[in-house]
Specification:
By secondary structure, the protein is an alpha+beta fold. The chain has helices spanning 2-20, 270-298, 302-305, 318-353; strands at residues 23-24, 40-43, 59-63, 68-77, 83-94, 100-102, 110-112, 116-119, 123-132, 140-141, 144-150, 153-163, 171-179, 184-191, 200-207, 211-219, 229-235, 243-253, 257-267.
Length: 354
C-alpha cells in the first residue's frame, strides 16, 4: 500500500514539473489548421517497452502478470487559450459488425498520474501513466486506450498491451449463409486464440452449371480481438440465375491462424418459371379447345358415310338403292314370266284332252 502511494505521488509530481516547465510549440505550429481539433494527444517519444526517438502511433507495453508498466502521454495545445483535458483508461472491444470501440467505463489496469490536466496555450504537457497487470491476467494481447476529452471532443490513444506467456493464433468461420436476392454472403468470424488478428478473406464458388469461380481475396478492415466474434458480409458480384452452387470461405491471419466455412444455395428464377408455366397452361387449354371443337363438327356417323367400312349409315347409298331396284324388277319379271307360262299352257292342255 505504501509503495502504491509513493508511486502515485511521484507520478503527480512529474505532471506538475512538466506543466511548470512546458515545452514551447514552434510559431509555425502555434495555430491549428482550419477546423482542426485545437489540441492533440499522442505517445511521448522515448518511452514504453519499445522506446523510439521518433513519434509513436500508439503505446506498446509488455510484461508478466503482476508487474507494473509505465509510459508517458503528450498533450499539445497549439491554441491561444489554455485547455483542460480529462484522462481515463478504457478497454478496447469489437462491435458486432467488426468495428473497433472503447468501453465507456474506466479500466482498472491503466492509471493516469492525473485525471485532469490543464495545458497552457502553445505548450505541451507530458503526463505519465501506469499499467498494473493483474497477477491472474491471461497471456496474450489486451488492447486498451487512454481517452482524452476536452471541449466536447474525445479521442483515444491506443495502448497495445501484451501479457507475457504462451500465445495462440486461432480463428473459426461460422454461420455461413447466402442471401440470394441481393447477392450477399454472411458469415461470422470468431477469434479462438489470445492474440489480435487481421484476417485475410478468400471466397470461391462451385456451381453445377456455372463451374468454379474465385470471388474475392482481400485483407479485411477488421482487427479481431481475442475472444471476440464479429458478423461480416461479402458481396457476390454476379450470382447465377439458374444453378445449384456452393460457396467456400477461407480466412487466414498472422501466426498460422486459419478457418474455413461453406454454404450452398439453389438459384431458381421463380418469376420466369411462373411465366413459362402460364404459357404451358395456355397452350394446353388451346389444344383441348381445338380438339373439342373438332369433335362437335364431325358428328357420330360422319366416319361411316365416307365409305370407310365402319358400318351402314343412316341413309342407303345409291348402289344399295340400285341393287334393290334391280332385285325388285327381276323378281317382278320372274313372276310375270311364270304367270304367262301357266296361262298359255293350260289351254294347250285342255285342247289336247279334247
Amino acid at each position: 500500500m505504501l509503495t502504491r502511494t509513493i508511486r502515485s505521488a511521484v507520478l503527480t509530481a512529474a505532471v506538475l514539473l512538466c506543466s511548470a516547465a512546458p515545452a514551447l510549440v514552434p510559431a509555425s505550429a502555434a495555430e491549428p489548421a482550419a477546423g482542426g481539433p485545437g489540441w492533440t494527444a499522442a505517445p511521448a517519444s522515448g518511452g514504453g517497452s519499445r522506446p523510439s526517438a521518433d513519434g509513436r502511433p500508439y503505446f506498446y507495453l509488455e510484461g508478466a502478470p503482476g508487474t507494473v508498466l509505465e509510459d508517458t502521454l503528450a498533450l499539445t495545445n497549439p491554441g491561444k487559450k489554455s485547455v483542460t483535458v480529462r484522462l481515463r483508461g478504457a478497454e478496447a472491444e469489437n462491435t458486432a459488425s467488426g468495428g473497433s470501440a472503447l468501453r465507456t467505463t474506466d479500466t482498472t489496469w491503466i492509471t493516469p498520474a492525473a485525471r485532469t490536466v490543464k495545458v497552457p496555450a502553445r505548450t505541451s504537457a507530458r503526463v505519465p501513466f501506469s499499467v498494473t497487470v493483474p497477477a491472474t491476467a491471461e497471456p496474450g494481447d489486451h488492447p486498451a486506450a487512454i481517452v482524452a476529452a476536452s471541449g466536447g471532443r474525445e479521442t483515444g490513444v491506443r495502448v497495445q498491451l501484451r501479457v507475457s506467456g504462451p500465445t495462440l493464433s486461432a480463428l473459426t468461420v461460422e454461420d455461413v449463409r447466402v442471401d440470394k436476392d441481393p447477392g450477399l454472403i454472411h458469415y461470422t468470424l470468431v477469434n479462438r486464440g489470445n492474440t489480435a488478428l487481421t484476417p485475410h478473406l478468400d471466397v470461391r464458388t462451385d456451381g453445377l452449371i456455372s463451374g468454379d469461380h474465385h470471388i474475392a481475396g482481400r485483407t479485411l478492415p477488421v482487427e479481431l480481438l481475442p475472444g471476440r466474434r464479429v458478423r461480416l458480409t461479402v458481396k457476390w458480384p454476379h450470382p447465377p440465375v439458374l444453378d445449384s452452387a456452393a460457396v467456400h470461405l477461407a480466412v487466414t491471419a498472422g501466426g498460422g491462424a486459419r478457418g474455413t466455412g461453406s454454404a450452398s444455395a439453389v438459384f431458381v428464377p421463380w418469376w420466369r418459371v411462373a411465366g413459362l408455366a402460364g404459357l404451358v397452361l395456355a397452350g394446353t387449354g388451346g389444344w383441348f379447345a381445338v380438339r373439342r371443337r373438332r369433335a362437335r363438327g364431325t358428328g357420330p356417323g360422319t366416319g361411316a358415310g365416307t365409305g370407310t367400312g365402319a358400318g351402314p349409315g343412316p341413309y342407303p347409298s345409291d348402289n344399295s338403292r340400285n341393287s334393290s331396284g334391280d332385285s325388285t324388277e327381276n323378281s317382278g319379271s320372274t313372276r310375270s314370266t311364270d304367270s304367262t307360262d301357266s296361262t298359255d299352257s293350260e289351254p294347250a292342255t285342255a285342247g289336247a284332252e279334247t
